[in-house]
Design goal:
Shape: elongated
Distance between the termini: 45 Å
Strand order of the largest sheet: 3-2-1-4-5
Largest sheet: 5 strands, mixed
Structural class: alpha/beta
Number of domains: 3
Strand content: 5-15%
Helix content: 40-55%
Mean pLDDT: 87
Number of strands: 5
CATH superfamily of the largest domain: Ribonuclease H-like superfamily/Ribonuclease H
Radius of gyration: 31 Å
CATH architecture of the largest domain: 2-Layer Sandwich
């Protein structure tokens, strides 16, 4: 690739050599025809006579010597402290005795300039991946969510309200289990609320999720990734559901929920934009809001990992599903 302002491409340089060396014409006349200076013409002639055709190619613009470059040992220490302490450039700079701008440049050079790219417990870089086609991999997870009392919780009543104080000593109302499925390629998601996470419940959810995805144009599910819960590892109903779909089971690494990161990230979005997005006056009120939010998430909400487009844009759907 040549410099965008280069007067001579590789073809032009060879033309220069042919006219000057083979035809014996003056350099001053040839460079005028080719639209470059005499210095440029003589430069390429000298390189060709020294190196041959290889000398006509562009050379890297990297300096031969960088006397002020950060020493390798300092760079290694910057990277090590970044991984161990998860600190930013301004906090690392005093520890290392170098400017914060230098720390940032080193972190950028080594791909460590974003803390979001590091796994918090281990400090290892998160391996990001994306399947090539819809339905190739489905991420499934369950989010445990506390149920709401009739009349609403503290978000509606307030922390110091008499109703909230009485609720502290009242019998617990239990939990809802939000079962979620996210397609790896498209990020299209499906969710249902259930009172438990038994294997029969999980199997029924998988069947309905497959029907939901098929209605949107994802007709085949090849693999399903889950954590290592017994309902997925040994549940007969779950194994039968996978067999009915012709899908293979995939499991996360033990104690590494990041392996199922797309489902985990969807759970966080689910809480921020649905479960805690507004004060609900009852558990039923919150449950009724889920389908509407889910439609917005799939069809209208812009997704940062998809270039600002909603997930539905990655599916070849029939007309009418974008409404």
């Amino acid at each position: 690739m040549f410099h965008r302002n280069a007067r001579l491409t590789l073809y032009g340089r060879r033309l220069l050599i042919e006219r000057v060396v083979v035809q014996g014409r003056p350099v001053a006349h040839v460079v005028k025809e080719l639209g470059c200076s005499r210095a440029t013409g003589y430069k390429w002639l000298t390189r060709w006579r020294t190196e041959g055709d290889a000398g006509l190619r562009d050379r890297p613009s990297t300096a031969y010597r960088l006397p002020h470059k950060t020493p390798h040992e300092v760079e290694q220490r910057i990277c090590r402290l970044r991984v161990e302490r998860k600190l930013g450039p301004r906090r690392l700079a005093p520890l290392l005795g170098v400017p914060a701008s230098t720390v940032h440049a080193v972190l950028t050079r080594h791909g460590l300039h974003r803390l979001a790219w590091l796994d918090r417990p281990t400090g290892e870089r998160i391996r990001r991946y994306e399947r090539d086609t819809p339905g190739e991999l489905l991420h499934v997870d369950v989010k445990k969510l506390g149920r709401l009392r009739d009349g609403g919780g503290w978000r509606v009543l307030g922390h110091d309200s008499p109703e909230h104080r009485r609720a502290r000593n009242a019998p617990r109302v239990g939990f809802d289990y939000v079962h979620c499925a996210v397609d790896d390629h498209t990020r299209i998601a499906y969710a249902e609320i259930h009172p438990d996470e038994k294997t029969t419940t999980c199997a029924g959810f998988l069947h309905r999720a497959a029907e939901y995805f098929a209605d949107l144009g994802i007709t085949r599910i090849e693999r399903v990734m889950t954590d290592n819960a017994l309902a997925y590892r040994r549940g007969r109903a779950w194994q039968q559901a996978l067999a009915d779909l012709g899908a293979q089971a995939r499991f996360t690494r033990r104690y590494r929920p990041q392996t199922n990161g797309k489902a985990e990230r969807f759970n966080r979005t689910l809480l921020d934009e649905w479960a805690y997005a507004q004060p609900y006056i009852s558990n039923q009120h919150r449950a009724e809001a889920l389908p509407t939010w889910l439609h917005t998430y799939n069809h209208h909400r812009n997704h940062t990992s998809l270039g600002g487009q909603p997930p539905i844009t990655r599916v070849n759907n029939p007309a009418g599903h974008y409404s």
